[in-house]
Amino acid sequence: MVVLDYGSGNLRSAERALQRVGADVTVTADADAALDAHGLVVPGVGAFAACMEGIRAVGGEKIIDQRLAGGRPVLGICVGMQVLFEEGVEHGDRTEGCGQWPGTVERLHADVLPHMGWNLVRSPADSVLFAGLDADTRFYFVHSYAVRRWQLHADGPFREPLVTWANHGEDFVAAVENGALAATQFHPEKSGDAGATLLSNWLRSVVG
Asked: Does the predicted model carry a pTM greater than 0.70?
Protein backbone atom coordinates (compact mmCIF):
# COMPACT_ATOMS: atom_id res chain seq x y z
CA MET A 1 0.00 0.00 0.00
CA VAL A 2 1.36 3.45 -0.92
CA VAL A 3 0.39 6.84 0.50
CA LEU A 4 1.35 9.34 -2.19
CA ASP A 5 3.82 11.89 -0.83
CA TYR A 6 3.34 15.18 -2.65
CA GLY A 7 3.86 17.49 0.33
CA SER A 8 0.40 17.24 1.89
CA GLY A 9 0.27 17.69 5.64
CA ASN A 10 -1.59 14.57 6.79
CA LEU A 11 0.58 11.84 5.30
CA ARG A 12 1.66 10.27 8.58
CA SER A 13 -1.83 10.18 10.09
CA ALA A 14 -3.04 8.36 6.97
CA GLU A 15 -0.09 5.99 7.22
CA ARG A 16 -0.79 5.21 10.88
CA ALA A 17 -4.51 4.68 10.26
CA LEU A 18 -3.81 2.20 7.46
CA GLN A 19 -1.25 0.38 9.58
CA ARG A 20 -3.86 0.13 12.34
CA VAL A 21 -6.10 -1.93 10.04
CA GLY A 22 -3.27 -4.21 8.96
CA ALA A 23 -1.91 -2.58 5.81
CA ASP A 24 1.77 -2.68 4.89
CA VAL A 25 2.26 1.01 4.06
CA THR A 26 4.95 3.05 2.33
CA VAL A 27 4.84 6.84 2.12
CA THR A 28 6.59 7.84 -1.09
CA ALA A 29 6.57 10.03 -4.19
CA ASP A 30 8.22 7.29 -6.26
CA ALA A 31 6.10 6.75 -9.37
CA ASP A 32 7.04 3.09 -9.86
CA ALA A 33 6.14 2.23 -6.26
CA ALA A 34 2.85 4.13 -6.53
CA LEU A 35 1.97 2.37 -9.78
CA ASP A 36 2.89 -1.10 -8.53
CA ALA A 37 1.19 -0.95 -5.12
CA HIS A 38 -2.00 -2.93 -4.46
CA GLY A 39 -3.68 0.31 -3.41
CA LEU A 40 -2.82 4.01 -3.62
CA VAL A 41 -4.04 6.56 -1.06
CA VAL A 42 -4.08 10.25 -2.01
CA PRO A 43 -4.56 12.37 1.13
CA GLY A 44 -4.87 16.14 1.16
CA VAL A 45 -5.33 19.13 3.43
CA GLY A 46 -5.42 22.85 2.76
CA ALA A 47 -6.11 24.60 -0.51
CA PHE A 48 -7.16 22.86 -3.72
CA ALA A 49 -4.66 24.83 -5.82
CA ALA A 50 -1.73 24.06 -3.53
CA CYS A 51 -2.56 20.35 -3.49
CA MET A 52 -2.81 20.24 -7.29
CA GLU A 53 0.56 21.97 -7.56
CA GLY A 54 2.09 19.32 -5.33
CA ILE A 55 0.39 16.47 -7.18
CA ARG A 56 1.60 17.74 -10.56
CA ALA A 57 5.12 18.16 -9.20
CA VAL A 58 5.36 14.40 -8.60
CA GLY A 59 3.31 13.37 -11.66
CA GLY A 60 0.47 12.31 -9.40
CA GLU A 61 -2.33 12.96 -11.89
CA LYS A 62 -0.62 10.61 -14.39
CA ILE A 63 -0.09 7.98 -11.70
CA ILE A 64 -3.78 8.10 -10.76
CA ASP A 65 -4.84 7.95 -14.40
CA GLN A 66 -2.58 4.98 -15.18
CA ARG A 67 -3.70 3.06 -12.12
CA LEU A 68 -7.37 3.55 -12.93
CA ALA A 69 -6.83 2.62 -16.58
CA GLY A 70 -5.60 -0.73 -15.28
CA GLY A 71 -8.41 -1.06 -12.71
CA ARG A 72 -6.03 -0.60 -9.78
CA PRO A 73 -7.59 0.90 -6.62
CA VAL A 74 -7.14 4.54 -5.59
CA LEU A 75 -8.57 6.18 -2.45
CA GLY A 76 -8.73 9.97 -2.12
CA ILE A 77 -9.15 11.64 1.29
CA CYS A 78 -10.45 15.19 1.93
CA VAL A 79 -8.70 17.50 -0.57
CA GLY A 80 -7.35 14.26 -2.04
CA MET A 81 -10.98 13.60 -2.99
CA GLN A 82 -11.61 17.12 -4.23
CA VAL A 83 -8.70 17.10 -6.68
CA LEU A 84 -10.25 14.09 -8.45
CA PHE A 85 -12.91 16.41 -9.88
CA GLU A 86 -12.58 18.69 -12.92
CA GLU A 87 -11.88 21.91 -11.10
CA GLY A 88 -11.80 23.81 -7.84
CA VAL A 89 -12.88 27.42 -7.33
CA GLU A 90 -11.30 29.35 -4.44
CA HIS A 91 -11.67 33.12 -4.01
CA GLY A 92 -12.79 33.41 -7.63
CA ASP A 93 -9.76 31.55 -9.00
CA ARG A 94 -10.28 28.33 -10.93
CA THR A 95 -7.77 25.48 -10.74
CA GLU A 96 -7.89 22.44 -12.99
CA GLY A 97 -8.16 19.16 -11.10
CA CYS A 98 -7.31 15.59 -12.11
CA GLY A 99 -10.60 15.30 -14.02
CA GLN A 100 -11.56 11.77 -13.05
CA TRP A 101 -15.08 12.99 -12.29
CA PRO A 102 -17.03 15.94 -13.73
CA GLY A 103 -17.90 18.66 -11.28
CA THR A 104 -16.64 21.68 -9.39
CA VAL A 105 -15.35 21.97 -5.85
CA GLU A 106 -16.70 25.23 -4.43
CA ARG A 107 -17.41 26.99 -1.16
CA LEU A 108 -20.30 25.60 0.85
CA HIS A 109 -23.32 27.78 1.49
CA ALA A 110 -23.40 27.57 5.30
CA ASP A 111 -23.62 30.02 8.19
CA VAL A 112 -20.53 28.59 9.87
CA LEU A 113 -17.35 27.68 8.02
CA PRO A 114 -15.19 25.75 8.11
CA HIS A 115 -17.40 22.73 8.64
CA MET A 116 -15.44 21.18 11.48
CA GLY A 117 -16.49 18.25 13.59
CA TRP A 118 -18.48 15.02 13.55
CA ASN A 119 -21.33 14.58 11.11
CA LEU A 120 -23.73 11.94 9.89
CA VAL A 121 -23.63 10.68 6.31
CA ARG A 122 -26.24 9.08 4.04
CA SER A 123 -24.68 6.14 2.26
CA PRO A 124 -26.24 3.77 -0.31
CA ALA A 125 -27.44 0.42 0.99
CA ASP A 126 -24.96 -1.51 -1.18
CA SER A 127 -21.93 0.56 -0.21
CA VAL A 128 -18.70 -1.37 0.33
CA LEU A 129 -16.95 1.44 2.23
CA PHE A 130 -19.75 1.80 4.79
CA ALA A 131 -20.55 -1.90 5.20
CA GLY A 132 -21.22 -2.82 8.81
CA LEU A 133 -21.65 0.80 9.93
CA ASP A 134 -24.94 2.04 11.38
CA ALA A 135 -26.84 4.99 9.92
CA ASP A 136 -26.08 7.04 13.05
CA THR A 137 -22.30 6.64 12.64
CA ARG A 138 -20.48 9.97 12.53
CA PHE A 139 -17.29 10.90 10.71
CA TYR A 140 -14.88 13.78 11.21
CA PHE A 141 -14.95 16.64 8.72
CA VAL A 142 -12.72 19.72 8.36
CA HIS A 143 -13.47 21.71 5.19
CA SER A 144 -15.09 24.80 3.73
CA TYR A 145 -15.29 23.56 0.14
CA ALA A 146 -17.05 20.56 -1.35
CA VAL A 147 -18.84 19.19 -4.40
CA ARG A 148 -22.43 20.35 -4.12
CA ARG A 149 -23.80 18.58 -7.21
CA TRP A 150 -23.01 15.10 -8.52
CA GLN A 151 -22.82 15.08 -12.31
CA LEU A 152 -21.60 11.66 -13.44
CA HIS A 153 -24.30 9.13 -14.28
CA ALA A 154 -23.57 5.74 -15.79
CA ASP A 155 -25.13 4.56 -19.02
CA GLY A 156 -25.04 1.31 -20.93
CA PRO A 157 -23.33 -1.58 -19.13
CA PHE A 158 -21.51 0.60 -16.59
CA ARG A 159 -22.54 0.55 -12.95
CA GLU A 160 -23.86 3.78 -11.47
CA PRO A 161 -21.34 5.26 -9.01
CA LEU A 162 -22.33 5.04 -5.35
CA VAL A 163 -22.53 8.53 -3.85
CA THR A 164 -22.74 9.23 -0.12
CA TRP A 165 -24.06 12.60 1.04
CA ALA A 166 -23.76 14.77 4.14
CA ASN A 167 -25.25 18.13 5.09
CA HIS A 168 -23.78 21.33 6.48
CA GLY A 169 -25.92 24.25 5.44
CA GLU A 170 -26.68 22.25 2.29
CA ASP A 171 -26.11 18.76 0.93
CA PHE A 172 -22.65 17.92 -0.38
CA VAL A 173 -20.84 14.82 -1.60
CA ALA A 174 -19.26 13.03 1.37
CA ALA A 175 -17.93 9.94 -0.41
CA VAL A 176 -17.90 8.24 -3.80
CA GLU A 177 -17.38 4.62 -4.85
CA ASN A 178 -16.81 4.32 -8.60
CA GLY A 179 -15.14 1.07 -9.60
CA ALA A 180 -11.46 1.20 -8.66
CA LEU A 181 -11.75 4.85 -7.59
CA ALA A 182 -13.11 5.73 -4.15
CA ALA A 183 -12.89 8.87 -2.04
CA THR A 184 -14.12 10.52 1.15
CA GLN A 185 -14.53 14.20 1.96
CA PHE A 186 -14.23 13.41 5.67
CA HIS A 187 -11.06 12.14 7.35
CA PRO A 188 -11.33 8.40 8.09
CA GLU A 189 -7.89 8.58 9.73
CA LYS A 190 -9.36 11.02 12.29
CA SER A 191 -12.71 9.26 12.67
CA GLY A 192 -11.81 6.70 15.33
CA ASP A 193 -13.32 3.23 15.11
CA ALA A 194 -15.74 4.27 12.37
CA GLY A 195 -12.88 5.44 10.19
CA ALA A 196 -10.93 2.29 10.93
CA THR A 197 -13.89 0.17 9.81
CA LEU A 198 -14.17 2.15 6.57
CA LEU A 199 -10.44 1.81 5.84
CA SER A 200 -10.60 -1.89 6.67
CA ASN A 201 -13.50 -2.29 4.24
CA TRP A 202 -11.52 -0.51 1.54
CA LEU A 203 -8.38 -2.55 2.26
CA ARG A 204 -10.38 -5.77 2.06
CA SER A 205 -11.75 -4.72 -1.35
CA VAL A 206 -8.18 -4.05 -2.51
CA VAL A 207 -6.36 -7.17 -1.33
CA GLY A 208 -9.27 -9.57 -0.78
From this structure: yes
